[in-house]
Amino acid sequence: MNKIRVSAVVFSCLALALLILGDSYKTTSNVAEAKAVTIVKNDRICATDHDPERIANAEKDFKEKKIAKGLLKAPNAKGKPGSGTPTPTPPPPPPPSGGVINVYFHVINQGSTTADGNIPQSWITDQMSVLNAANAQYNFSFNLISTDRTTNATWYNGCYGSAEGPMKNALHQGSAGDLNIYSCNPSNGILGYATFPSSYTSQPTLDGVVILDQSMPGGNAAPYNEGDTGTHEVGHWMGLYHTFQGGCNGNGDYVADTPAENSPAYGCPGGRDSCRRDPGLDPISNFMDYTDDYCMFEFSGGQGTRMGDQFAVYRAGN
Question: Catalytic residue positions?
Answer without folding.
Answer: 233
